[in-house]
Amino acid sequence: MNRDDASVRAMNALRRLVSALRSSGAAASAGLGMSVAQLFALRIIGQNPGLSMGDLATRTLTTPSAVSEVVARLVVRGLVRREPSHEDRRRAVLHVTAEGSALLDGMEESLPERLIAALAAMPTDARVTLANALEAWVTSAGLSGVTPSMLGEGQAPAPREFAGAPFAYPAAISSTEEVLEESRPIAR
35 and 154 in contact (C-beta within 8 Å)? Predict the structure, then answer.
């Protein structure tokens, strides 16, 4: 296999993102007992009281269903409350509780917030190029059917089938060649 510079750079950038998500996830779990996604959603709700689920999905650049799962966990923990909107009683709005507010005091910006801010700072054409390249990469790896969730929510998914081939997370892979060998069934 030809080890071109662009492929190495892309894989290293992905490794940095995964490593940063793992580190921030471990810190959030250990210190606060919550996921990075929950911390992110809590901060956005705290900064914007009265957001709807749709507004929160827009601000977090994710889907309403992914946001719904994260908010449900925050509600169960007593950090967020849902209440009917004063303008439209059929619509629920979100507020941070006193406990949630106390948790937010002095809390640093979350990794997803930093990533979204960095995307917003990029020129539009660079964002479009990045999105197109990432979507092409994910599609060619046979992962386009994986449902996106909020960054930092949940654990690694259980092994499942991608593109008709069994896929399992390898325990430890020491070289690029082993990664490629492990992923060949996916590419078929």
Answer: yes
CB 164 within 8 A of CB 142: no
pLDDT grade for 94, boundaries at 50, 70 and 90: very high
Question: What is the set of domains in the chain, with CATH numbers?
Answer: 5-155 (1.10.10.10), 158-188 (no CATH)
Q: Is the dihedral of CA 7, 8, 11, 14 positive or negative?
A: negative
Q: Look at the pTM and tell me if it is higher than 0.90.
A: no
| DSSP code per residue over 3-15 | --HHHHHHHHHHH
Distances (CA, A) of 54 to 14, 40, 71, 103, 110: 29, 15, 12, 24, 20
Question: φ, ψ for residue 18 (rounded to 5)?
Answer: -65, -45
Give the pLDDT band (50/70/90) at residue 42.
very high
